[in-house]
UniProtKB/TrEMBL annotation, chain A:
The organism of origin for this protein: Gallus gallus (Chicken)
Oligomeric and partner information: Interacts with MTX1/metaxin-1. Associates with the mitochondrial contact site and cristae organizing system (MICOS) complex, composed of at least MICOS10/MIC10, CHCHD3/MIC19, CHCHD6/MIC25, APOOL/MIC27, IMMT/MIC60, APOO/MIC23/MIC26 and QIL1/MIC13. This complex was also known under the names MINOS or MitOS complex. The MICOS complex associates with mitochondrial outer membrane proteins SAMM50, MTX1 and MTX2 (together described as components of the mitochondrial outer membrane sorting assembly machinery (SAM) complex) and DNAJC11, mitochondrial inner membrane protein TMEM11 and with HSPA9.
UniProt name for this protein: Metaxin-2
Gene Ontology CC terms, in alphabetical order: nucleolus; SAM complex
Chief localisation class: mitochondrion
Keywords attached to this entry: Acetylation, Membrane, Mitochondrion, Mitochondrion outer membrane, Protein transport, Transport
Recorded name of the encoding gene: MTX2
InterPro entries: Glutathione-S-Trfase_C_sf, Glutathione_S-Trfase, Metaxin_GST, Mito_Protein_Transport_Metaxin, Sam37/metaxin_N
Signal peptide: none
Compartments where found: Mitochondrion outer membrane
Automatic annotation (TrEMBL), chain B:
Main location: mitochondrion
Top-level taxonomic group: Eukaryota
PANTHER family: SORTING AND ASSEMBLY MACHINERY COMPONENT 50 HOMOLOG, SORTING AND ASSEMBLY MACHINERY SAMM50 PROTEIN FAMILY MEMBER
Pfam families registered for this protein in UniProt: Omp85
Gene this protein is translated from: SAMM50
UniProt topology in membrane: Multi-pass membrane protein
Keyword terms, alphabetized: Membrane, Mitochondrion, Mitochondrion outer membrane, Transmembrane, Transmembrane beta strand
UniProt organism field: Gallus gallus (Chicken)
Name this protein carries in UniProt: SAMM50 sorting and assembly machinery component
Annotated localization: Mitochondrion outer membrane
Gene Ontology CC annotation, any one: mitochondrial outer membrane
Entry keyword Cell inner membrane: no
Family, per entry: Belongs to the SAM50/omp85 family.
Length: 318, 431
């Protein structure tokens, strides 16, 4: 969209207050959504929670194609459709809600820089792992990505997406990297984030910003998603303050709210692997059907229970 | 020898056959041997020539009738010689097209008479700045019975539908059998299509946005056509009945429905070279299972080729100005075609034009399939849109027609978009 049109749209958007029926669209939670998309969706949900704006999560198999930019998640607010965290932050700002108003220019630039770091390193590493690591592609990505579609459409769509992502990787120079190098990059990114976070509760001052939402979305998803191996989550677990940060944000913003998109439940169901029977046994011991039911009933106490269990899982995985 | 002398056709020669096989030729010329007198021979030879030409494998067919020469010649024996020129093995065409903000080059290739029995392979490829589309088709008639044929098509087609703010890309494969039964023509077809829907503009309504994405339709369909008109464009007499049904979902795919539609037209010539024509169209789409119907399967109504006086496909359910189509519709028209007043250019150019007075009506809606047929009829009968007017029709060859009408739309419901006043239309199928 041209700058003029965008400015005009923002003017229009600013005139209306946040409606009650705002909706966030993503792919199907149980069977379809992948690691990178789940991270992005969780980041937006965290951001909207931090701004205290109610939104309900709607799962659609064609969410990726419904989105105006082709990426999930996107929000449908009044008459407008906005996708991806960056534009959503702008949109919400036009309505008068902002988390980064208290920052000065230098801090804002720093925040943008760290968000770029997360997008260029963490997100790209997630995409690499999902689409360029052959084992993960075969066992997790292809079955999940094409699951809502009949044969042969499921194979065609996942191969098409894989080709597109691999072309993008080649363009940014990641095609030649090995898995170890990618994990090294993840480690360096986590180190930078950990150093910036230090012992503070949030990245800037005592208030969360969109950077906190983005980092939470990615790190929490990495920590709680079961892949073929857990090398990726190991890299994050090396930094204690990052795991504590995730736990803190989850406790503060995702417990006691009444949508079934509670962070732990959504991340947990994002991926499953049949290759590690021991971990699966632990999995089934912790997350009994009873606990799932409680979570689904959306009682505040149950959400605490789920969060507590989420913490237990993280401890267990060390 | 004169016209009524009994003659015997002794030999039929063919000059110029190359790759064409003998057996299909034998079928087409079998009748010539049955001719009894000279007039009959000439007539049967002419019919055989027409039959040979319709196979689509010869560029030219000449007939020579001569008395028989040679040792076994009878006194009233005749020899008929067909001099044929076969089409080349490969014909190609190359065009460039320029349209709205886009250009494309179109390459066409045709392989007539590929294996000697009138099989045909055609390939068309269009490469443009916006879109690429292609089609590959293999056609095989039954030797001796050209109307019974079978074809396989592979295609990719893109369409843009601004009235719904929708873009659709179809990639599909279809196989069809055509066969005549008595006076009717039947077609049995299986089609598998990968459909991709998308929004044409960022301002598309959310109902259309929700339909974006991919789906796979695998359907079997049957069509029956009875056509006794003397021409398909501006017929003077005769009737047409087309009934089409399609069942999707039982051979794979994720779209499941039963679709029926029919088209009926009746023409009668009146005094002074004028023709009265009545037509009726209708259709119904019943989704099977829980999923609602897709915007790509529904019916649309309105426009210069349908209910005149309304904008293209702009009648019926809509959301924010995007027309979503409906699951049931009917449309009818009464027309009176007369020659141009004062008959200018009579006998020549003026005969291509006709004056045209019309009355069109129709309705498009979604039915609640739980209610009975009485409720359905009631729903289709309320909110009828109709229009009347007059105009000029131009016939383009035997393929298309152009219309310029002045229309008065009536019964307009809120949400319909009208085109009252002058409306121009071009097409091959008009209500």
């Amino acid at each position: 969209m041209s700058l003029v049109a965008e400015a005009f749209m923002n003017q229009l958007a600013a005139a209306e207050p946040w409606p009650e029926n705002a909706a966030l669209y993503q792919q199907l939670k149980e069977d379809q959504i992948l690691l990178s998309d789940n991270a992005a969706s969780l980041a937006v949900q965290a951001f909207l929670q931090m701004c205290n704006l109610p939104v309900r999560v709607v799962c659609r198999a064609n969410a990726e194609y419904m989105s105006p930019s082709g990426k999930v998640p996107f929000i449908h607010v009044g008459n407008q459709v906005v996708s991806e965290l960056g534009p959503i932050v702008q949109f919400v700002k036009a309505k008068g809600h902002s988390l980064s108003d208290g920052l000065d220019e230098v801090q804002k630039a720093e925040m943008k820089a760290y968000m770029e770091l997360v997008n260029n390193m963490l997100l790209t590493a997630e995409l690499y792992l999902q689409w360029c690591d052959d084992v993960t592609v075969e066992e997790i990505t292809h079955p999940r990505y094409g699951s809502p579609y009949p044969w042969p459409l499921n194979r065609i769509l996942s191969y098409q997406k894989q080709w597109e992502i691999r072309r993008k990787m080649k363009a940014i120079g990641w095609a030649g990297k090995s898995l170890e190098q990618v994990l090294e990059d993840v480690d360096q990114c986590c180190q930078a984030l950990s150093q910036r976070l230090g012992t503070q509760p949030y990245f800037f001052n005592k208030q969360p910003t969109e950077l906190d939402a983005l980092v939470f979305g990615h790190l929490f998803t990495i920590l709680t998603t079961q892949l073929i191996t857990d090398e990726l989550s190991e890299k994050v677990k090396n930094y204690g303050n990052l795991t504590a940060f995730c736990r803190r944000i989850e406790q503060q913003y995702f417990e006691g709210h009444d949508k079934d998109g509670s962070a732990a439940a959504s991340a947990r169901s994002a991926k499953r692997s049949e290759s590690d029977p021991d971990l699966n046994k632990i999995w089934s011991q912790i997350f009994t059907p009873e606990c799932f039911c409680l979570a689904a009933c959306q009682m505040p106490s149950s959400c605490k229970c789920v969060t507590h269990l989420g913490v237990q899982l993280v401890e267990l995985m060390r | 020898m004169n016209c009524v002398t009994v003659v015997v056709v002794q030999h039929v020669h063919f000059d110029g056959l190359g790759r064409t096989r003998d057996d299909i030729i034998m079928y087409e010329i079998a009748d010539v041997f049955k001719a009894k007198n000279l007039i009959d021979v000439m007539r049967k030879s002419h019919e055989a020539r027409e039959k040979l030409l319709r196979l689509g494998i010869f560029r030219q067919v000449e007939v020579l009738i001569d008395t028989c020469q040679g040792d076994d010649a009878l006194p009233n024996g005749l020899d008929v010689t067909f001099e044929v020129t076969e089409l080349r093995r490969l014909t190609g065409s190359y065009n460039t097209m320029v349209g709205n903000n886009e250009g494309s080059m179109v390459l066409g290739l045709k392989f007539p008479n590929l294996l000697g029995r009138a099989e045909k392979v055609t390939f068309q490829f269009s490469y443009g700045t916006k879109e690429t589309s292609y089609g590959l088709s293999f056609f095989k008639p039954q030797p001796g019975n050209f109307e019974r044929n079978f074809s396989v098509n592979l295609y990719k087609v893109t369409g843009q539908f601004p009235w719904s703010s929708l873009r659709e890309t179809d990639r599909g494969i279809s196989t069809e059998f055509n066969f005549p039964i008595w006076k009717t023509n039947h077609t049995l077809k299986w089609e598998g299509v990968w459909r991709e829907l998308g929004c044409l503009a960022r301002t598309a309504s959310f109902s259309v946005r929700e339909e974006s994405g991919h789906s796979l339709k695998s359907s079997i369909s049957h069509a029956m056509v009875i056509d006794s008109r003397n021409s398909s464009i501006l017929p003077k007499r005769g009737a047409l009945l087309k009934i089409n049904q399609e069942l999707a979902g039982y051979t794979g795919g994720d779209v499941s429905f039963l679709k029926e539609d029919f088209e009926f037209q009746l023409n009668k010539q009146l005094l002074w070279d004028s023709v009265f024509s009545a037509s009726l169209w209708g259709g119904m789409l019943v989704p099977i299972g829980d999923k609602p119907s897709s915007i790509a399967d529904r019916f649309y109504l309105g426009g210069p080729t349908s209910v005149r006086g309304f904008s293209m496909y702009s009648i019926g359910p809509q959301s924010d100005g995007d027309y979503l189509g409906g699951e049931a519709y009917w449309a009818g028209g009464l027309h009176l075609y007369t020659p141009l007043p004062f008959r200018p250019g009579r006998g020549g150019f003026g005969d291509l034009f006709r004056t045209h007075f019309f009355l069109n009506a129709g309705n498009l809606c979604n039915l609640n399939y739980g209610d009975g047929p009485k409720a359905h009829l009631q729903k289709l009968a309320e909110y009828i849109r109709w229009s009347y007017g007059a105009g000029i029709v131009l016939r383009l060859g035997n393929i298309a027609r152009l219309e310029l009408n002045y229309c008065f739309p009536m019964g307009v419901q809120s949400g319909d978009r009208i085109c009252d006043g002058v409306q121009f239309g071009a097409g091959i199928r008009f209500l």
